[in-house]
Write a structure and sequence with these properties.
The structure holds 2 protein chains of 2 kinds. Chain A is mainly alpha-helical. Helices cover 73% and strands 4% of the residues of chain A. In chain A, strand 1 and strand 2 form a beta hairpin. The radius of gyration of chain A is 21 Å and the shape is globular. By secondary structure, chain B is mostly helical. Chain B has a single domain, classed as F1FO ATP Synthase. Classes of the chains: A mainly alpha, B mainly alpha. Chains A and B meet through helix 2, helix 6 and helix 7 of A and helix 2 of B.
């Protein structure tokens, strides 16, 4: 039994190898890119829009709304990063019901790469928003004694992000395999259905947690500028705008 | 018992114990969180969206300890480093 698609190697050149993770990552990338290209080729602004355009628009509006709710800021600048994370993870998790498809998120190297990009994105957004000095002040926030704990927290949450996604996707495939040996008739299908739900929820959670971490990097700036009372009022005005 | 058998027995037993004990805590915690969230939704149906989102994120956090246990037990069964070490020693 394979623990991760990393072990299926198609080609090997010296230390560089072409394994199933890379191939299926490319396949997911190709599907997402080609689909978006094809759909956005003929966009219309009239009352009659193509149904595929409707799909993409609703996805984008959904992601924007969720980011706005979590970060309580203008969501458009977070959209490229968080939207990409969500769509990539959701797509590769959903495609796992296709026979023969090995979800690239079921490999620890993919999820580690995604978590590392979140680890890098948090200070980038924070520094752009608050400036280098104010962002670094974040680490010694209550007292300078908290510095090691803040750094440990940053590393361990990245680890948790990677292992959580990997464990969930891998366990879906693993349980399907085990059930196939014990009760092959109906139960694997039910577990696959559950796996679809889990896959979408995990994609959602990954993107939301990334948004929460990014927002936590921005908050300090906001807190030091605005009095607390203003911040407490803000959420209600935001939801009022949305409705 | 030679060392290889001992490693196999220890890995299998500890894998079972790991996932068995490790699943108890998160299951209890998630159950409590879900019950509390349902009670809150019953009290304030307007806040359903916020409560559900926070519930999902919190549950993912709680669940990650169970996922760690699962990953550890999977490693113990399918990719056991000690097993490979002793197997290499016996073979070589």
């Amino acid at each position: 039994m394979q623990l991760s698609p990393d072990n299926i190697i198609y080609q090997q050149w010296g230390i560089a190898s072409l394994n199933a993770t890379i191939i299926f990552t490319w396949i997911v990338m190709a599907i997402v890119t080609a689909g978006a290209r094809l759909i956005t080729k003929r966009l219309s602004t009239g009352p009659d829009i193509p149904s595929w355009q409707n799909l993409l628009e609703s996805i984008v509006v959904l992601i924007l709304g969720q980011i706005r709710d979590v970060t309580r800021q203008e969501p458009r600048r977070f959209l490229p990063f968080l939207g990409t994370l969500f769509i990539f993870i959701a797509m590769s998790n959903l495609l796992s019901i296709v026979p023969g498809f090995q979800p690239p998120t079921g490999s620890l190297s993919t999820t580690t790469a995604l978590a590392l990009s979140v680890l890098v994105a948090v200070p980038i957004y924070g520094i752009i928003d608050a400036g280098l000095k104010d962002y670094l002040k974040n680490y010694i926030m209550p007292t300078p004694m908290m510095l090691p704990f803040n750094i440990t927290g940053e590393i361990s949450r990245t680890l948790a992000l990677a292992v959580r996604l990997f464990g969930n996707v891998m366990s879906g495939g693993m349980i399907g395999g085990i059930l196939l040996a014990i009760a092959p008739l109906i139960f694997p299908i039910i577990m696959q259905l559950l796996g679809l739900l889990t896959g979408l929820v995990q994609a959602y959670i990954f993107a939301i947690l990334a948004a929460v971490y990014i927002a936590a990097g921005l908050k300090v700036h906001e807190k030091s500028v605005q009095p607390i009372t203003v911040r407490l009022v803000e959420p209600s005005t935001n939801t009022a705008e949305k409705e | 018992m030679d060392s290889l058998t001992f490693v196999a027995v220890a890995s299998i037993i500890s894998a079972g114990l790991c996932i068995g004990i490790g699943a108890i805590g998160p299951a209890l915690g998630e159950g409590r969180a879900l019950a509390q969230a349902l009670a809150s939704i019953a009290q304030q149906p307007d806040e359903t969206n916020t409560i559900t989102r926070t519930l999902f994120v919190g549950m993912a956090m709680v669940e990650s300890t169970a996922i760690y246990c699962f990953v550890v037990s999977m490693i113990l069964i399918f990719a056991n480093p000690f097993w490979n070490y002793f197997l290499g020693k016996v073979g070589g």
